[in-house]
Amino acid sequence: MMSKSKIKRLLSVLCVLAMIGGGVWFSNKLMMNKASGEQYDQFFKAEQDFDVLFLGSSHVINGVSPLDLFREYGITSYNLSMHGNYVASSYYLFKESLEILNKKGRPFPKAVVLDIYGGKEIVFDLHNAWDSFPLSRTKAEMVANLVPKEDQAAMLVPFFLYHNRWNELKYDDFRMYPSRRYGVQPRYEVCYPADEIVTDSEDMVEADEEKLFYINQMNQLCKSLGIKLILIHIPYSYHPEQQREANAVCRYAQEQGIFCVNYMNQNIGLDFDIDFYDQGHLNASGMRILTREMGRLLIEAGMEDHRGQPEEQVWEEENQAFIQYRIQQLWGIGDVKGYLMGICDPDLIAQVQIRQAVMEDKQIGKLVERLRRSGCEICVTETYIEIPEEGGTSQKYDIYCCVYRKDDPDMPIHTVGFSVN
User: Is the four-CA dihedral 383, 388, 394, 396 of positive or negative sign?
Assistant: First the structure.
């Protein structure tokens, strides 16, 4: 039997070890990159089931909105994508997500949608995705196969990378702002396309062997679990060689019996002049167009419409928060084209006064016409729009917008004027 002194000594050692462990855990949480936690915290804590998981890089994180998907089709989903994480990392993220669902006793998804864009992952982007995931067999496998040896320890235990960030800490490091948007990140800018958009499905270059390997791995895993695998290629206008490679990947997938849709080769209503926030990524308007197309595809693939079922209330509450988020974004948009794109929203209606000369701008003209088709009131004038201000003065604008929620059209939520140089 241990003496009282030995028991006290043992307890003291255990307390010290617990304090050290707790300190390391807290320091790791405090100093680590917050991008991963902000993106995946909602998935980790979600109680509802997801019939579909979306995977890929920034093309998907800016391209598919689960809340819009439920609103229009009743499909439950989560966007597990992350900037710079392509097919290889997506395969491991999918495996890890299945392990998390299994531990929680939650059902696996009925389908997984993987975007085939991209090349080799880099360490920085892998940290953005993986830092919030605890050490696991799948994470260790990912690190062994995708991360250079000199960076593997820090990828497995992020504290090794972030432990010296004390002098860089800011207020936001002490708080995390998890996405409540099921993984999507809408963008509020408008950009003209690059010079080359490859629309011919026969225009291709050789596909990357590693990408094909991981697509096969994903296919085998999905088959073993009865999960439907759908490959997609979201449109963009940069990197024409990547566009050509995607044609080859789609050809290969079809030969293997894997369902693949290359939206670069299809007309789904996207306008390259106004539906992209840069030459590679969809803006909020383009996101809704692609999401609508994804909904059609998934319904045809047999996904269930959950509207009218008990889980609808949770999704409706989240959707109301999403509407408020989109309204708040309007206050921070200083660019007229981004603003006109942003108010072309299914939950908003606007009165837009615009000077005729400004309509000669190609993008502005297209954006205003889209607003007109969506039911907004458009008034085109030959002169500047004069808006009275306090003190009896007035301000002249080229464009003046008064925006309302469609469910409350008598109360303006935002008014703004723009002078276009």
Answer: negative
DSSP secondary structure code for residue 191 in this structure: -
- In three-state secondary structure terms, 79 is strand
Residue 242 pLDDT level (bands cut at 50, 70, 90): very high
Calculate helix-pair angle for 87-103, 209-225, nearest 10 degrees. 20
54: three-class secondary structure by DSSP: strand
Backbone angles phi, psi at 160, to 5 degrees: -60, -30
- Residues 89-143: pLDDT tens digits? 999 999 999 999 999 999 999 999 999 999 999 999 999 999 999 999 999 999 9
Q: What is the mean pLDDT of the chain?
A: 90
Looking at residue 180, its amino acid is R
Rounded CA separation 352/358 (Å): 13
pLDDT at 110: 98
**Overall CATH class of domain 19-321:** alpha beta
> 332 in the Ramachandran plot: left (φ > 0), alpha (ψ -120 to 50) or beta?
alpha
Q: Which residues, 6+ apart, have CB-to-CB distance to 137 below 8 Å?
A: none
Encoding tokens for residue 97?
Answer: 């997500």
Give the model's pLDDT for residue 391.
Answer: 73
Q: Contact at 8 Å (CB) between 66 and 125? A: no
pLDDT value for 364: 98
In this prediction the pTM is 0.90
In order of 51, 102, 305, the CA distances from 106 in angstroms are 11, 6, 19
Angle at 280 between CA 278 and CA 286, to 5 degrees: 75
Three-state secondary structure call for residue 119? coil
Query: d(Cα 93, Cα 115) in Å, to the nearest integer?
Result: 13
Closest CA to 290 of 307, 318, 271, 312: 271
Q: Which residues pair with 113 in a beta bridge?
A: 54, 230
For the chain, give every domain's residue range: 19-321, 334-418
Strands 111-115 and 228-233: parallel
pLDDT tens digit sequence for 350-406 = 999 999 999 999 999 999 999 999 999 999 999 999 998 877 788 999 999 999 999
What count of other Cβ atoms lies within 10 Å of the Cβ of residue 51?
20
